[in-house]
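[Automated response] Your request has been received and processed.

Submitted sequence:
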Amino acid sequence: MAFNGFEEGPAWGVPDPGTGDIVKDAIRKEQIIKDIAAAQGDLRALLTRVQGVQADVEKFTSENATLQMYIDNLTMQMAKRK
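Generated structure:
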């Protein structure tokens, strides 16, 4: 459906058959695939880092709970001595 000089463009994912060079398109697609693969590698590295940080947080949380218990016990002992 066209409106006063506006033509419909090709649908999503449907290339315009009259434009582009097959070699250029193949090179462009190959570059896009390489970029996607590199981005996936970066995401894997970030995920590994996030998992490491999460493990550290869990460890520190446990250590903090142990220290808090120690402090509470010392406080109770000090209070009993008075």
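Summary generated for your ticket: The radius of gyration is 31 Å. The longest helix spans residues 22-81.
If you did not submit this request, please reply to this message.
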